[in-house]
Amino acid sequence: MRILCRLLISLFFIMLPVLAWSQNAPATAQPPQGKLSHFGNWIVLCPPDGDKSGVRCAAQFSLVDKKRKIPVIVWRIGFNKKQALVMDMVTPTEVFLAKGVRLAIGKAPAITLPYVSCGLRGCQSNFAVTPELITAIKGSKIAILILAPTNGKLLELKLDVSGLDEALAALGAQ
Fold first, then answer.
1. Over the range 88-110, which residues count as b (16 or more CB within 10 Å of their CB) and which as e?
2. How many CB atoms sit inside 10 A of residue 136's CB?
3. How confident is the model at residue 174 (pLDDT cuts 50, 70, 90)?
4. Average of per-residue pLDDT values in the chain
5. 10, 51, 160, 174: which could join 93 in a potential S-S bond, CB 3.0 to 4.6 Å?
6. 142: part of which helix (H) or strand (E)?
7. Rounded to the nearest 5 degrees, what angle is found at the Cα of 34, between the Cα atoms of 28 and 36?
8. Which of 14-18, 42-46, 127-131, 168-172 has the lowest mean pLDDT?
9. Is the pLDDT of residue 166 over 90?
10. Interior CA angle at 137 toward 133 and 143, to 5°?
11. What is the CATH number of the domain that holds 116?
């Protein structure tokens, strides 16, 4: 319980930017402007009509501590600057970095998302999304996320990812 409290406290300042905006614009106190759509437990944010920046839509799932109303896990799917579909996940700090984040979803074999950075807002991992992965996760309602906290005990989270198919379709990732 103590480690969970420390993990939650360490994420107090986590940001909720959508992948596309976090890579192309400085963090601000104001939410990004654009069209916001909800698909089950996913939010899809698209740039405003007439936007010429080349930024595309991005989807986000957040696991929120209901008591404190802060995100514990933020999972984003969107396009990077090279227009490749990628997913990234921000998890609490105090995790074994070498183990990454383990994700099992749908018929896809479990994948490991390697951590690429850690800071006050959490640890970020990322992974390129292949057409094969999209096909394998279609229809999924549950994802299993495995974290390796520094206390040595694996933390397995069962995530309700309802709306994932619709969010992927809104991104044009089919």
1. bbbbbbbbeeeebbbbebbebee
2. 16
3. low
4. 79
5. 10
6. strand 142-147
7. 105
8. 14-18
9. yes
10. 115
11. 2.60.40.1880
Name residue 113's beta-bridge partners. Answer: 101
Position 133 scores a pLDDT of 87
* Residue 10 parent element (H or E): helix 2-10
pLDDT value for 8: 30
The strand pair at 35-39 and 42-46 is best described as antiparallel
**Distance, CA of 147 to CA of 104 (rounded, Å):** 12
Per the structure, the complete domain to which residue 120 belongs is given by 2-171
pLDDT of residue 139: 87
Which residue in this structure is represented by tokens 């044009």?
Answer: 172
Please give the order of strands across the beta sheet that includes 155-160: 111-113, 101-105, 142-147, 155-160
Please give the biggest Cα pair distance in the chain: 50
Closest CA to 102 of 67, 130, 73: 73
And the tokens for 22? 């976090």
Q: Provide the residue count of the chain.
A: 174
Pairing mode, if any, of strands 58-65 and 70-79?
antiparallel
Checking if the pLDDT of 87 tops 90, the result is yes
> In a 3-state reduction of DSSP, which class is residue 51?
coil
| Overall pTM > 0.70 | yes
